[in-house]
Design brief:
The protein has helices at about 25-40, 70-85; strands at about 5-10, 50-60, 95-105, 110-120. The chain is α+β, with helices and mostly antiparallel strands. The chain has a 4-stranded mixed beta sheet with strand order 1-4-2-3, covered by helices on one side. The chain starts with 5 loop residues before the first strand and ends in a 6-residue tail after the last strand. About 25% of the residues are buried.
């Protein structure tokens, strides 16, 4: 598999969103807009697909990490950006068949998270 179907997006902690954060709605919306825009710009090289599987690898600044599903709001905003870029028509189950995530290596950069998204037209074997 080549890197042509991958996006690695580094995210400063000021823009990171988790389920556990108690953000004001306007602050959450601002972060979501920023994440969508970054993903839209980074996804321009991806080929359009009608159906896809996406695997999100979460990279925390340190090995400590956190809840594996905590950054789901960040991942959702990035997927919305991929849709905005025209890679998928929508992120509904009709087009996004599988969404999986795992923990990756730490970024090793204080205050910098990263998400690596692998967009594939091949469904997982389960």
């Amino acid at each position: 598999m080549t890197d042509d179907n991958r996006l690695r997006i580094e995210i400063p902690k000021e823009w990171w969103i988790t389920h556990n954060m108690r953000l004001h709605w306007a602050q959450r919306a601002e972060r979501t807009r920023w994440l969508r825009q970054v993903a839209k710009l980074k996804a321009r090289h991806l080929a359009p697909l009608q159906e896809a599987s996406i695997h999100a690898m979460i990279h925390s600044p340190t090995a400590r990490g956190g809840d594996i599903d905590g950054p789901a709001p960040t991942i959702k905003a990035l997927i919305d950006g991929i849709v905005d870029a025209g890679v998928l028509p929508d992120d509904s189950p009709k087009h996004l068949k599988f969404l999986t995530h795992s923990r990756g290596q730490p970024t090793g950069k204080p205050g910098i998270y990263a998400i690596t998204l692998r967009v594939s037209d091949v469904n997982p074997p389960f």
